[in-house]
Design a protein that fits this description.
Elements: H1 2-42, H2 47-53, H3 65-71, H4 74-107, H5 114-123, H6 131-141, H7 149-152, H8 159-170, H9 174-182, H10 187-198, H11 200-215, H12 219-224, H13 233-243, H14 246-251, H15 265-286
Helix pairs in contact: 3-15, 4-8, 4-11, 4-13, 11-15, 13-15
Organism: Paenibacillus jilunlii
Main location: membrane
Keywords: Cell membrane, Membrane, Transmembrane, Transmembrane helix, Transport
């Protein structure tokens, strides 16, 4: 009887702990989802209602003026999406390939100059050439003015990501490399057939950060892009928001009805269009944020 009572107490205690955990997680999830829900609902609000009552979850009147203004330039919007998708995919793939190879090489104990190159890479985190030398390099020497690669190359490699890959490499047992070398595998074969399959969690993490960086790219687009059909999504949406500025429209001589100008709701609408697609990518990458794929790789 004593054992049964103890078991019942333990079961009831675990149920209480689970209940508290579920309630806490649910509350935290709702807190995280609230800004997104407010952003979506506010993008459909009428401009007068926003001015009178501010942003809220349940608008009294649903308005599509913000989206109609943005989607009125549907051709340019599609071009901006295509440019952003292109630089995100190409930049992320190139970045993962180069940074994973750099981490692989810097972790190799038989590489004589690994400490020297590690210092050079670390040095870039402390000092940079600055905007003017970078602009001269991209435009005058690399001739990338109005080229999509002007938005790709600056973000391909990151020092922090290289060191993250190198540190992950340290968790892979040396026995795998030794056994592969004995079997006659070369360096690239070891990298491609052993490191890449085991590095999926780190590649997914770095790939997501890199993809977010390219998806949110606008500054390099502003600096180097001249053709409107090559504007990235973020820069295109920024220009659309600026076009709704009342003072700029009046100074340009435009005749407008201030009540019909969605200056506030269009900001939320641009956020929805900009963040929606990249949010859908996260569930496919989140499951790889788990470490320990090397457990059991070496036995004995």
């Amino acid at each position: 009887m004593t054992v049964e009572k103890t078991t019942i107490k333990q079961d009831s205690g675990s149920l209480i702990v689970k209940g508290i955990s579920y309630v806490s997680i649910t509350f935290f999830a709702l807190v995280c989802l609230f800004p997104f829900a407010l952003m979506i609902s506010s993008s459909f609000m009428n401009e007068q209602e926003i001015v009178r009552e501010g942003y809220k979850l349940l608008p009294k009147e649903v308005s599509f003026k913000a989206y109609s203004m943005l989607l009125g330039n549907s051709t340019q919007l599609v071009d901006a999406y295509q440019v952003t998708i292109f630089i995100t995919v190409v930049g992320t793939v190139l970045g993962l390939f180069m940074m994973s190879m750099a981490g692989f090489v810097l972790n190799r104990k038989d590489f004589k100059y690994r400490n020297f190159f590690s210092f050079l890479i670390y040095f870039t985190t402390l000092f940079s050439g600055g905007l003017i030398p970078t602009y001269i390099l991209m435009v005058k020497h690399l001739h990338l003015k109005d080229s999509l690669f002007a938005m790709i190359l600056p973000g391909v490699v990151g020092a922090w990501s290289i060191f993250l890959m190198r540190n992950f490499m340290k968790a892979i047992p040396d026995s795998l490399y030794e056994s592969a070398t004995i079997d006659g595998a070369g360096d690239f074969r070891i990298y491609w057939r052993i490191f890449i399959p085991l590095a999926v969690p780190s590649l997914a993490t770095i790939g997501l950060f890199s993809a977010l960086g390219f998806w949110n790219e606008w500054y390099n687009g502003m600096l180097y892009m001249d053709s409107p059909d090559k504007f990235p999504l973020q820069y295109f949406l920024q220009r659309m928001v600026n076009q709704t500025n009342l003072g700029a429209l009046i100074n340009s001589g435009a005749v407008i009805n201030t009540a019909d100008l969605p200056t506030q709701s269009i900001k939320m609408a641009t956020a929805v269009l900009a963040t929606g697609p990249i949010i859908l990518l996260y569930p496919f990458v989140q499951r790889y944020f788990v470490t320990g794929l090397t457990i059991g790789a070496v036995k004995g």
